Amino acid sequence: MSDNWSLKESHTFNRRIIDDIRRAAKTGLYRIRGGGAKRAVPSFDDLVFLGASMSRYPLEGYREHCGTEVTLGARYAKKPVRLKIPITIAGMSFGSLSANAKEALGRGASAMGTSTTTGDGGMTTEEREHSQILVYQYLPSRYGMNPDDLRRADAIEVVVGQGAKPGGGGMLLGQKISARVAQMRDLPEGIDQRSACRHPDWTGPDDLAIKIRELREITAWEKPIYVKCGASRPYYDTLLAVKAGADVVVMDGMQGGTAATQEVFIEHVGIPTLAAVRQAVAALKEANMHRTVQLVVAGGIRSGSDVAKALAMGADAVSVGTAALIAIGDNAPQYDEEYQALGSAAGFWEDYQDGTDPAGITTQDAELMKRVNPEAAGRRLANYLRVLTMEAQTLARANGKSHVHNLEPEDLAAVTVEAAAMAGVPLAGTNWVPGS
């Protein structure tokens, strides 16, 4: 950093942009990284709850109950998923994450009565054993997929897209393809693996309907079928998922994380989670399926206020991914020196694809993996989920609601014009909803 205060950095060609240009010129390679979008976009931070006063009375937190339970997948499934809290753990693959990290996610979710999700690469023994409720992702790559695991799952999530890269596939670089990862994916050890961007056996919504029926028949119509979409055209994608027979729609906004993909995808494809929620809810209402087909919202969920605001806009539950990894130790300050030795720092580490994560979470290195104690990490995740739940309950009570699902758009106001337009709630202090 220069001490010359007369210098003015270009907004167009700032230091990060200059560094990107130099790196591209030197290597001839595009930038790959993990994590989600870093650009500032309208988010749940741009909404506020109005709270109760004369027209509505708050509930007393120490005496009056505020429910948090939710049932997912009762539309067709014989055995819908019943969760004690409306916060689930998003799909993250074994391969991207270590086996200990996957076990920790299962332990933490189970302690709070909620679900975790497999991800690309199949189901590990540890995560099935320690996950009371496990959602099995059915992805375009089919890595690790087999009918037995479909039947061992509690629900199936058909992944059509991911918030960090709608329309794009995934990457797992060779340094993370250990013998076990390779065996589960039935691919060579140490070789880069590309996950396809679309399912090989369908070309449109009619094929999705056929696939959903096949999955129901394989699992005796017991398991709820989720359809996960990256937020790009959430209104039409939600309508088509409902038409195809989904029990649950999972909508993942552009702030959602990824293990690894091109940065140009992460930052420039998809729409913010805030904008996606409103359109998905509108589609469910248009189809007369709101609350019949549940909506799970993902992509940058961090706090109980994010949870409560998503529910107030009409979601039934949320999913956390990046925040769950942080809770179990990702980017922990105790490893700052090692992160710096890798050219990063604790709190900034994003090279999940490299397999050198000092915290032992996004790696297959046998020694680094030992740094994750699944029991201790699981307890930290449970603590975090407990705090999110209590924060959401606090906000619901403050708005006079005896269940977090009773929160509604009328409880919200926006503090920016952009957020008001995206969320469809009035700009604070006015009755004005842009575009209405």
Strand and helix layout:
Blueprint: H1 15-27, E1 32-33, E2 47-49, E3 70-72, E4 81-83, E5 87-89, H2 99-111, E6 115-117, H3 125-130, E7 133-138, H4 147-152, E8 155-159, E9 170-172, H5 179-185, E10 193-195, H6 205-218, E11 225-230, H7 234-244, E12 248-252, E13 261-262, H8 263-268, H9 273-286, E14 294-298, H10 304-312, E15 317-320, H11 322-327, H12 336-341, H13 366-369, H14 374-398, E16 412-414, H15 417-423
Parallel strand pairs: 5-15, 6-7, 7-8, 8-11, 11-12, 12-14, 14-15
Antiparallel strand pairs: 1-13, 2-16, 3-4, 9-10
Helix pairs in contact: 2-14, 6-7, 7-9, 10-14
Structural class: alpha/beta
Mean pLDDT: 94
Rg over C-alpha atoms, rounded to the nearest angstrom: 22 Å
pLDDT under 50 segments (min length 5)? none
Largest sheet: 8 strands, parallel
Shape: globular
Terminal residue distance: 47 Å
- Biggest sheet strand order reads 5-15-14-12-11-8-7-6
Counting DSSP E segments of at least 2 residues, the number of strands comes to 16
| Helical fraction | 25-40%
Number of helical elements: 15
Beta-strand content bin: 5-15%
